[in-house]
Amino acid sequence: MVSILVVGDLMIDHYLWGDCDRISPEAPVQVVDIKQEDKRLGGAGNVIANLKSLGARVGVLSVVGDDNRADQILDLLSEVDYKFLVKENGRKTSQKSRLMAVSQQIVRFDKESKENITQDSEDKLLSKFSEILPQFDGVLLSDYAKGVLTPRICKEIIKQSKDKFVLVDPKGKDYSKYSGATLLTPNRKEAAIATSIDIKDDVSLKDAIVKLKNDLNLKYSLITLSEKGIAFYDKSLEIIPAIAREVYDVTGAGDTVLATLGYALASKMSIKNATILANKAAAVVVSKVGSATVTLSEIAEYDKFTSCWDPLKKIKTVDEILEILSANNKQVIFTNGCFDILHAGHVSYLAKAKAIGGVLVLGLNSDASVKRLKGNTRPINSQISRATVLAGLQSVDYVVIFDEDTPYELIKKIKPDVLVKGADYANKEVVGSDIAKRVELIEFKDGFSTTNIIKRIKE
């Protein structure tokens, strides 16, 4: 399990829900009849909630006031694995209260302190940070400009975390306190203000993203582009486009991006694949109403939705599938074959394999491998043609092409939970059975085979 430490501004999101059907006789204002009241963790709490929903172990460090709202935050953090809150005398714990009438926000009123935390609070927070840092894979700084992430706090955390990643959701015009971080996640408007570059096309986008990387000595540079996706810069500019079915609510999407990037990098994904995963997570969140969290299963369902238009997205290299599976918490099912001419028997077999429950990875023999196994007249269809047709099946999650005569080396790397073969392998040794947790044999649909189809065509 990946383990991530969140440091930032915690607050309470307070909602008062009610109905409104009259105007006050005292003043020209609406009268709201309160029906429900609830409190949720806000600010950096949205990042924490996303990490928990992704399946990470989470720690949190913050500074709050010495008041009853601080106690409420501790209660809301009950499911967090590790928490350390410095209570500062005279400070107000942030609470944003929203009056909602018929799902519309009427007014918001805040109670909070926005000045920087005291030096004593900084000392306590940094002392605890140094003590617990070895327990975590990386650090996320969630800055809501409420005074916790002072220049000293940011610089010390980045300095002490030189062997780990530090990702920052920045605030303000001056990003110098984040210098040396792994990456920042500003949106287009924030990046334009911070760099004084009017971002209006790909040229100005590249200028801004490179300036952030160079000026702040970042390992990677990233700018979120709302409905257009996410741009990142490693050695060159790449834009990962977003595909959202419908956009209902963009609230919390930035927190989702930060949390998902942290989860992906802790899972040893490359920066490109981490950005792709974060982009998908954001697309899921904005298509939901009233929820700013995402799960890996929701991302997988979104992946299937987008793959309907482009089956090639389901065809992966060995390295790509290992990265994907490392961030997956579902059972992994593996099967393999040549699948030269896809027929009803194959479709039935793969549907039954998927019905076992989990992620179905199909190992596909390459053209050279098929030729060695079946003879010089095979395959009829090329490996990319066969892979594309298989990827178009709803039952198949991913296709990986391998060049050996057997998939043993691929199975060694994937380490599937379930290895699936046809029932004709009963009482026979199944390649990879010594690696998988169990083997499932599935009956083939009678009367179907590629060899017989080819024979009938010739006749």
Automatic annotation (TrEMBL):
Residues 3-293 form the Carbohydrate kinase PfkB domain. Residues 334-459 are annotated as: Cytidylyltransferase. Keywords: ATP-binding, Carbohydrate metabolism, Kinase, Multifunctional enzyme, Nucleotide-binding, Nucleotidyltransferase, Transferase. The active site is at D255. Residues 1-313 are annotated as: Ribokinase. GO terms for molecular function: ATP binding; heptose 7-phosphate kinase activity; heptose-1-phosphate adenylyltransferase activity; phosphotransferase activity, alcohol group as acceptor. SUPFAM superfamilies: Nucleotidylyl transferase, Ribokinase-like. ATP binds at N187, R188, K189, E190. One of its GO terms (cellular component) is cytosol. InterPro entries: Bifunc_HldE (IPR023030), Cyt_trans-like (IPR004821), PfkB_dom (IPR011611), RfaE_dom_I (IPR011913), RfaE_dom_II (IPR011914), Ribokinase-like (IPR029056), Rossmann-like_a/b/a_fold (IPR014729). GO terms for biological process: ADP-L-glycero-beta-D-manno-heptose biosynthetic process. Its EC number is 2.7.1.167, 2.7.7.70. Residues 334-428 form the Cytidyltransferase-like domain. Pathway: Nucleotide-sugar biosynthesis; ADP-L-glycero-beta-D-manno-heptose biosynthesis; ADP-L-glycero-beta-D-manno-heptose from D-glycero-beta-D-manno-heptose 7-phosphate: step 3/4; Nucleotide-sugar biosynthesis; ADP-L-glycero-beta-D-manno-heptose biosynthesis; ADP-L-glycero-beta-D-manno-heptose from D-glycero-beta-D-manno-heptose 7-phosphate: step 1/4. It catalyses: D-glycero-beta-D-manno-heptose 7-phosphate + ATP = D-glycero-beta-D-manno-heptose 1,7-bisphosphate + ADP + H(+); D-glycero-beta-D-manno-heptose 1-phosphate + ATP + H(+) = ADP-D-glycero-beta-D-manno-heptose + diphosphate. Catalyzes the ADP transfer from ATP to D-glycero-beta-D-manno-heptose 1-phosphate, yielding ADP-D-glycero-beta-D-manno-heptose. Homodimer. HAMAP family: HldE. In the N-terminal section; belongs to the carbohydrate kinase PfkB family. PANTHER family: BIFUNCTIONAL PROTEIN HLDE (PTHR46969). This is Bifunctional protein HldE. The gene is rfaE1.
